[in-house]
Amino acid sequence: MVAGVIAAITGFASSFALVIAGLHAVGATDAQASSGLFALCLVVGVVCIVLPLWLRVPVSFAWSTPGAALLVAAAGTTGDFGAAIGAFLVCGALIVVCALWPALGRAITRIPKPIASAMLAGILFPICLAPVTAAIEQPWVAVPMILVWLLLVRLAPRWAVPAAMLVAAIGIGVIAGPSAFTGDAIVPRLEFVAPVFDPFVIVSLGVPLFIVTMAGQNVPGFAVLSTFGYSPAPRPVLLASGAATVGGALFGGHAVNLAAITAAIMASPEANPDPAKRWVATLTSGVGYIVLGLGAGVATALVTASPPIIITAVAGLALLGALTTSIGAALDDARHRLTAIATFLVTASGVAVAGIGSAFWGLVVGGIVMLWTTRRPRTEPDA
Fold first, then answer.
1. What is the pTM of this model?
2. Is 258 helix (H, G, I), strand (E, B) or coil?
3. What is the CA radius of gyration of the chain?
4. Which value, to the nearest 10 degrees, does the dihedral of the CA atoms of residues 18, 24, 30, 34 take?
5. What is the distance between the alpha carbons of residues 290 and 14, in angstroms, rounded to a whole number?
6. Nearest to 210, CA basis, from 124, 93, 81
7. H or E element: which one contains 61?
8. Are 134 and 142 in contact (CB under 8 A)?
9. Angle at CA 74, nearest 5°, toward 346 and 337?
10. Which of 147, 291, 309, 362 is the most buried (most CB within 10 A)?
């Protein structure tokens, strides 16, 4: 039970600011962003309770942190939050299709690792630069935050990002004053957002969100469970991920997937020496997420009151590990390093062509470069 509580707190505190910043970036108002965070906490909590009770396996879920980073990187893709909701719904529907049509799931997982990893690295790179910029623009908040993070990375890595977020929250509170955290806005509430299905937004936001959620979270989530000896059937897990994404999207949430980092807390012997009892930890984390969701309004007020660079800097600290892993995976195969670099550069550039964002074009360019550089030259016939 303690492991589940720790996992919920760690998952929430390390990335809630990134979720709110991402929703703001694609057109959400403060109320809609608060609703989106609350909805994500509720649907994550429900699936973390229902599936472990059913399967008796420590299957745990979380919102898509790489997906939230994608939203931040896609700022300017759309100012219509309804169009973003349409893209979120398409993402959830595609995950459900993966559950019902395994061939699609296999196709997504077979996207060449240099391309998928480089795309994710390109999404994360601008965000991970933010701590450097924040240290110059807002040193009184950013420098203590970075120092606390650096200290705990050595002494207690699990708590490094939550502690950095706490330091940032104290600094923001001092700057903004108590008036920023009063009024009806801090009361958690769900706000329905009517979806708009814009083809350009679906291609530039919905499809990349689906890919990073599947390849960057769901697949590693299954790998973590396998590491600790669990092999749940993919269909109910992916159905839960897709259904939770669709349900949360109607109220502003972006995507729900298998947990990976926090899953290791709950599926490992740290949770319980008996593998048959570790599912209790994921159930407890579900309850924890629902309770933490009640603070969505306060969390949104905190992010709104903050200088934007501070929130992005916290997110950058949280994503440094993911950036390191994705860069390493992208460049692991020497034969495809040019492909990986091309994908990374196009994605990180933030360019939009024909209204379609850079993550999609990164995939396209990476695929073209890989096909061109790996195509075998024709041999001349003997004379």
1. 0.77
2. strand
3. 20
4. -40
5. 16
6. 93
7. strand 61-63
8. yes
9. 25
10. 362
Identity at 231, one-letter amino acid code: S
- In this structure, the chain runs to a length of 383
Dihedral-angle region of residue 177 (phi above 0 means left; psi in -120 to 50 means alpha; beta otherwise): left
Q: What is the H or E stretch that residue 257 is in? A: strand 256-258
- Which among 335, 85, 350, 62 has a CA at the least distance from the CA of 193? 85
Torsion, Cα 259 261 262 268, to 10 degrees, reads: 110
Tell me the two tokens of residue 184: 């009806």
Residues 6+ apart with CB under 8 A from 375: none
Residue-level pLDDT, tens digit, the chain, 383 residues: 777 887 788 788 778 888 998 999 999 998 999 999 999 999 999 999 999 999 888 888 999 888 888 898 887 778 899 999 999 999 999 999 988 887 776 766 667 888 888 887 888 888 889 899 999 988 988 999 999 999 998 888 878 888 888 888 888 888 766 665 666 667 788 999 999 999 989 988 999 899 888 877 887 788 778 777 788 888 899 999 999 999 999 999 999 998 876 777 788 787 778 888 888 889 999 998 998 888 888 888 887 787 888 888 887 887 788 788 888 888 988 889 999 999 999 988 877 676 666 777 888 899 899 989 886 655 555 54
What's the burial of 187, exposed, middle or buried (CB within 10 Å: 0-12/13-18/19+)?
exposed
Question: Token pair for residue 59?
Answer: 């299957």
Beta-bridge partners for 62 = 257
Query: What's the token pair of residue 326?
Result: 């994705």
3 state SS of 353: strand
Residue type, position 375, single letter? R
CA–CA dist 254, 243 (Å, integer): 12
Other CB atoms within 10 A of residue 104 CB = 15
b or e along 3-39 (b: 16 or more beta carbons within 10 Å of the residue's beta carbon)?
bbebbbbbbbbbbbbbbbbbbbbbbbebebbbbbbbb
